[in-house]
């Protein structure tokens, strides 16, 4: 298997839990790989404990499950709880970048080359769960990160369920029916406007069809998600970066990313989507396309343009 080998299959360790030990076939950085899955420092579905373990709560096709990951001697030791435990352990290599092929990537810019050299453990995660990535991405549409993280936190704590396993205050998100049944005043209470709430409800009602996108090639997967009104290119790309580990799912329509890419690669300020795509064109020709990977490396470099305007202020939706 590209990306690693399994030393021990999923085995029962104690009642209610299962374990698996997995060794990647090259450098890996747990924080870089799983970082995009964390929706803010207080994400109810993601926790890093003082011993360095990473905990995730997921709604899998088999039901809710909790996964704990720890690095031990160059290997990943995983333990899982709940009805979704075996599903999570079966998908462990994919989650940690085992389906990703970093060797297909060739840096074409000095800054990208340097960041690539400094982050050999970067792999692209593949969760295989579309709705899990889609809902928080919709919540992030046209609002500040703090607003989106607050909404995700409140909705999971109020409408999700306690995650299986021993860790307190970890929550599994609602299932598709649960999202569709959230009343309007609860969205409002979480600071979510009608447009974003309606998009999530529409997506939840066709969730089985959207989940099929996890097994599709990128163009077909993008097209499938965009059939839902309210899901545009930005939302579709941000979702598939996580659910599919798609190395060419480039984010367009973002307020900041084009400006950062333009400034980092050329020193120019004010780049738009067209200019960003022009600069990243050399990575589109690297099979199967590597523009998202290149963009991640650029963002990790931390070369941001000087701020010329005040921060975007959070909105009070009751005043709209």
TrEMBL record:
It comes from the Bacteria. The keyword Membrane does not apply. Gene3D superfamilies: Hypothetical protein, domain 2 (1.10.340.30). The keyword DNA damage applies. Keywords: DNA damage, DNA repair. This is DNA-3-methyladenine glycosylase family protein. It comes from Streptomyces pathocidini.
